[in-house]
Design a protein that fits this description.
Rossmann fold, 2 domains, elongated, alpha/beta, 7-stranded mixed β-sheet, homodimer
């Protein structure tokens, strides 16, 4: 395996998470200590920063601030939702990326994101190979959605899951305070995979959580939903429901679709307003007092409830990517292989970017109950180890002390 | 001062908070250790539990579970929104309360709530005096709204304020991740007083928070609001706004009023949907990408972000109420007298229920900026000491371990 000396770029892409910066920290700190890596650049807003020649010189950052990245939610370098064209159709962006790579002698490129980002990573990797530019390209996974293929789980998922479970437990307490009827519907992120909505069941497992959980893996049926809710409401006077934003009817139409029409840069429908809509529907049917709560951005940036396991693994993913690249690996994403029997153990592994890109991993049907309104014990056994551990959060005046980067532009 | 021997009732009323159970714990544990108090009862769902003869025998609770109350959000005994009639018009409820007090030899009544609860407390106290039933009645304050008169602040406010400030800091990180335009509007509780919405400014003070904060103390003007937002958005490409649910036009109409028509038991309009409505209005005007986030119940039950100061003071309020009552005091609410110069000091004091009942304390106009879209430093100086300190939260499997009461009904 050949030694490759040059600078590196780390970019962050897609929706942020509570721990994506822990991965960035893993990349940056490992790269800064690596003799083969001459300079460490952070791309402003992911691949857009490369295209626009906006790179931050990470060597100029205060090490103490870099240490705070693991406790700072959202993408500290800035993110983007930018889809690269098919290079066979239009290679403009790729030629520009190559130009920038040459300008800064970039020999290592680390891209920190989800499905779409691994696709970006894969396309750049293939192009660089085609044009014979010697460069090692590694994907560092992140996504609260947990839908990346080929890995036990994704950094970012566990902290969002912990936020969701904890918030559901607290809302349960609040929603059960009066002796009058109440139906509470909590809307959770997750377009096509129900990993996040399923995490609400951790609250139920812990004693206080939703009676019903609806995942997008099972087609939604409004009549059955109303019957489910009504049965519990009539029996107990309360009903708490967790729904994934991505629940859809058998024909594929999102239940929330009528509510919004906006799409993001990848053409995904932007969902929202589902909880309120379902709550209103329940109200009309049952006459119950209802409340719709959307966890919205809070669930993906709630770093104060991050899982220490998640933070450590996110850092490990970044560190592993750099170490692997320097040792000669390219065109791979860091993934996790985990065992849970006899205590949770998580080990990093590497999988091909082509395998990962654009494939979505869903919750196995057998982990969802037959009625399609809750999860089974294997889901709990899967998710519970991931949310363990509380970080010692740096605070000032009892408020979070987030990293403050200088972001000096490279010349 | 005469010694009075007999049992006591603790009831909780109104909207729950993260620390109302710390006050209940303060009452219960102090009463359990008090020789003059023969038995400690918890009223199921506040005054309704008294009227319905549903009292829990707190002497039968596990002391270890009682210790967990301070970390358990919402009203563990159950709450209500029940308005007692004017006793001169209809004394049915009062005669029933007297009957129950006699049945259980109740000589101490502690009521844990906000404005309306202090009114309830006051009416019962006056009635008992009128009929010559020897009984000491004390109000224990709680309200996230912080609008109780005669006290520096209310237990419950600080923890909600800390939740709001922390969440705003996190959402700020998330809302600034893309290099595309974004207007984020966060809706915060508070019908008539802006203490909670003002707490969002703590986030700004800490470095990452809303650009604009609208409190109900200043009449809302939609045109000025849109001009405020547009000016910041055009300059920076982003704008983050915190609004109180209670913002209203000069004629008193709630800005959110068109959205809902439901009212609670006291005839208060139930507000909500404001953030989304304002976001849509901004979108129409500016074309910006917008997101409306309602903190909803999360802000009043987010015990995992409770202020240790708040927990301690809530407990102190309950303890002080019992100690004062046993020493001969009646017809008072526990309040706080605080100094902030040279370090924060908070001392309990007692004020007459008549003074407190149905008076709302608002944010002083001079603590709000002239433009009515932010708060001034005195607000920060007021609120910051209250949110200090992190409790050591009991957890099981990294999820909250809430108190589990047996709730054995008294016979």
């Amino acid at each position: 395996m050949s030694q490759l000396k040059g600078s590196c770029i780390i970019g962050q892409s897609g929706g942020p998470t509570s721990v994506i910066n822990a991965s960035a920290q893993g990349v940056i700190q490992t790269a800064l200590n690596c003799p083969d890596i001459t300079r460490v650049y952070g791309a402003a807003h992911g691949i857009k920063g490369v295209l626009e020649d906006k790179l931050y010189d990470m060597n100029q950052e205060d090490p103490a601030e870099l240490d705070l990245l693991q406790y700072t939610p959202s993408s500290a370098l800035g993110s983007c939702r930018y889809k690269l064209a098919d290079p066979d159709v239009d290679d403009t962006d790729y030629r520009r990326i190559l130009e920038i790579f040459r300008k800064y002698d970039v020999r290592y490129f680390f891209y920190n994101g989800g499905n779409d980002s691994m696709d970006t990573c894969n396309k750049i990797s293939k192009y660089m190979q085609k044009v014979g530019y010697d460069c090692r390209i590694m994907g560092v996974p992140k996504t609260i959605d947990n839908d990346l293929f080929g890995t036990d789980h994704c950094p970012g998922y566990a902290s969002a899951a912990k936020y969701i479970a904890t918030s559901c437990m607290e809302v349960w307490q609040d929603a059960h305070v009066y002796d009058t009827g109440m139906v509470t519907i909590i809307e959770i992120m997750g377009r096509h995979a129900g990993w996040l909505a399923g995490a609400a069941a951790l609250a139920t497992w812990a004693g206080f959580g939703p009676d019903l959980v609806y995942l997008p893996e099972v087609d939604f049926d409004m009549d059955r939903f109303l019957a489910d809710v009504t049965a519990i409401y009539e029996k107990t006077g309360k009903c708490m429901v967790a729904v994934s934003e991505g629940i859809h009817y058998a024909d594929g139409t999102f239940v929330s679709e009528a509510k919004t029409s906006a799409t993001d840069g990848f053409g995904h429908a932007q969902l929202g307003g589902l909880a309120v809509m379902l709550a209103e529907t329940v109200k009309q049917r049952t006459g119950a007092k209802v409340r719709g709560i959307e966890l919205s951005l809070l669930q993906r940036c709630g770093a104060h409830l991050a899982s220490l396991t998640d933070i450590s693994e996110a850092y490990l993913a970044g560190k592993t990517a750099v170490e692997a690249a320097v040792s000669g690996v390219t065109d791979k994403m860091v993934a996790f292989e985990c065992t849970r029997e006899g205590g949770y153990v998580c080990k990093p592994k590497l999988i091909g970017l082509t395998e990962v890109a654009n494939v979505e991993k869903k919750v196995p049907r057998e982990w969802i109950n037959a009625a399609g309104n809750g999860v089974e014990q294997p889901f709990i056994d899967y998710a519970l180890p991931l949310i363990q551990g509380e970080p010692s959060l740096p605070r000032e005046h009892s408020l979070p002390r987030f990293a403050k980067l200088k972001k000096v532009l490279a010349k």
